[in-house]
Design goal:
Layout (H helix, E strand, L loop, with lengths): L1 H55 L6 E6 L2 E6 H40 L7 H19 L8
Antiparallel strand pairs: 1-2
């Protein structure tokens, strides 16, 4: 019976290691999702900036079209410009909140790495990729003679 208890202790360590690995993986996944969402919103904000920059210079009574909930509606620039500016400001706020959440997540991951002494190792496949990148850059030099056919 004592051998079972010892085996359970080893099992708990493995479970704990596995739980830590799972937690770490999920935290990294959340961080990647935050990065993706921030990037998506930044692209949308740049589109808003482009629209604002374009329509600010036009006559406010000029008609324009705006997509609202999948529906294309006709409005004037005077009506649309403030709404687009508000949307851009809202995006800026959301991006700043997501950046704060990202920083918190980075700190949590750093604490977890420090607490459990987590180090990320490159797998053999990733190390081979690095070598092929070096070879690829050397191969890029070899492509030069192909222009001699001209």
């Amino acid at each position: 019976m004592t051998s079972k208890a010892e085996g359970d202790g080893d099992g708990n360590e493995q479970i704990n290691e596995q739980a830590v690995a799972n937690l770490y993986g999920s935290m990294r996944a959340e961080m990647n999702q935050l990065y993706s969402k921030i990037t998506e919103l930044e692209m949308e904000m740049s589109e808003h900036s482009l629209v604002i920059g374009t329509i600010q210079l036009l006559d406010p009574s000029r008609r324009c079209f705006r997509m609202i909930g999948g529906m294309l509606v006709e409005r004037t620039i005077k009506e649309v410009l403030p709404a687009v500016q508000r949307n851009k400001e809202g995006l800026e706020e959301v991006i700043s909140r997501l950046n704060e959440a990202l920083e918190k997540k980075k700190n949590e991951i750093a604490e977890l790495e420090a607490k459990y002494k987590i180090r990320i190792r490159k797998s053999d496949g990733e190390q081979k990729d690095d070598g092929s990148q070096k070879e690829g850059s050397a191969q890029g030099v070899l492509v030069g003679p192909a222009s001699a056919k001209e």
